[in-house]
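Worked example (supplementary).
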Amino acid sequence: EIVLTQSPATLSLSPGDRATLSCRASQSISSYLAWYQQKPGQAPRLLIYDASNRAIGIPARFSGSGSGTDFTLTISSLEPEDFAVYYCQQRDDWPLTFGQGTRLDIK
Amino acid sequence: QVQLVESGGGVVQPGRPLRLSCAASGFIFKNYIMHWVRQVPGKGLEWVAVISYDGSNKYYADSVKGRFTISRDNFDNMLYLQMDSLRAEDTALYYCARTREGEAAASSFQHWGQGTLVTVSS
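After joint prediction of all chains, the assembly is encoded as:
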């Protein structure tokens, strides 16, 4: 099973700051990585697929990069609605797996 | 617009069965591979099962293999998860999820329902 390790566990930033979230895979997953945002009481929302492609309707301040084992989600300038939990997910091999999440808190 | 509405959750005793349903609308259901994903409240996400377009192929997480069965009805646009021999560790919010347009079974999840809560407790 491919293990995804996200860091940091919690990130405390202010609106307008730049956020950089990391996801590391236990083996190469090519570019088969997605990022999700989840707010309390809501289902996850797909932000990025295949490492760097924004999903439909996702603002341009969200970007993804990386390949192989190391991936990054960047939020260029945080808006108040961006404070949430973020998960990465790989689709390179079965079982599909998720990272444990990074909580983005308001500082 | 795409809608996925889960139902069937509740409190069930260990060892008992439960069947979850997911009603799909707003897209051509038979054209999409479908998944179940679960989340222990306050914890992370775990993929559970996937079913092919016509239901002929299914794949499960090891944690549920042999106990859970995924199925679908393409006439009624419904997805199901039959859960047998439930355990306390199956307690979670269960989501049905649709694959992203253009992706096959090993997919990212473009659309999610709001989930149905299953609590396994005596």
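Two points are worth noting when inspecting this output. Chain B touches chain A through 21 residues (CB under 8 Å). The CA atoms of residues 33 and 52 of chain B lie 5 Å apart.
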